Amino acid sequence: MTAKKQPLPYKMVAGVVPCPGGWLVLPAKLQGVTILPEEPFVLEKLADVLDYRPSFTVMTLDAPVGLRDEPGDRFRQCDLDAREILGWPRRVQVPPAPSRAALYAKSFDEAKKLDPWLTELYYRHFRHYREVDEEMQPFRQRSVYSANPELCFYLLNLDQPMKYSRHWDVGFQEREELLKLKFPGIDAYFKKDPPEGASRRHIVDAGAILWTARRISGRVVQRLPQDPEWDEKSLRMEIVR
Predict the structure, then answer these.
(1) What is the pLDDT of residues 41-68, one digit of tens each?
(2) Cα–Cα distance, 130 to 132 (Å, whole number)
(3) How far is CA 220 from the centre of its chain?
């Protein structure tokens, strides 16, 4: 007689961000209100993250989920809501989401004709965003959520925008120090060399959205927008914080 498999005494949650090596995963064990971050690692494909075992009960993803099929408005409603919360100048950290037509265009020039706001720097993210669009199905949105690191830092900072740009060294240090203060145990992974294919900045971003994964697990989360908006694949176009 096969012994019945016992459930784990904790939940696994993760913050996941795109990186040059694929996807940086910062996992954590969540037991009650205690969260214990674990060693970050890089997986090449998002499918490998979704199939990881033990599976994550909540995963926050620094990538848009749910896209408009055809070019139109530059921003989805969730992007507009997030930008309004952050205000100037931090709202620039919530970029537009590409239309699905542009995402699958055969070249940058073809994509830019569809989404004229597109830049070559942003176009580099398309390989990650295509993976998200290909892998996401409505049922996955019970455990996989789109989050934005800057919006998470805003909440960690008591609903105040960060003082410095994330692209400046002083801004990176500001965010790292805030995480150390609010998220006990996370600083251990700031002191180590990051896994191959990622940087410390990726780990800091993953730490911010991992904190949001903890909030989601505790059912303390705000969805943007408040009134749900779906795309043609029946995916909710939203950002959580």
Answers:
(1) 999 999 999 999 999 999 999 999 999 9
(2) 5
(3) 17
Q: Return the H-helix or E-strand segment holding 240.
A: strand 239-240
Residues 6+ apart with CB under 8 A from 1: none
- pLDDT of 228 reads 87
What percent of the chain is modeled with pLDDT above 70? 97
Q: Is 95 left (phi over 0), alpha (psi -120 to 50) or beta?
A: beta
Among 155, 219, 202, 174, which residue's Cα sits nearest to residue 40? 202
C-beta separation of 56 from 15 below 8 A? no
Q: How far apart are CA 19 and CA 199, in angstroms?
A: 8
- SS3 category, 51: coil
CB atoms within 10 A of CB 145: 23
Angle formed by the axes of helices 200-217 and 169-182, nearest 10°: 40
Residues paired with 23 in a beta bridge = 18, 43
Query: Which of 100, 95, 43, 22 is CA-nearest to residue 68?
Result: 100
Distance CA 112, CA 129 (A): 16
Predicted confidence (pLDDT) per residue in 82-126, tens digit: 999 999 999 999 999 999 999 999 999 999 999 999 999 999 999
* Three-state DSSP string of 68-86: CCCCCCCCCHHHHHHHHHH
Nearest Cα neighbor of 122 from 178, 74, 156 is: 74
Q: Which amino acid is at 142?
A: R
Inter-axis angle of helices 200-217 and 149-156, nearest 10 = 70
Tokens of 127: 């390989």
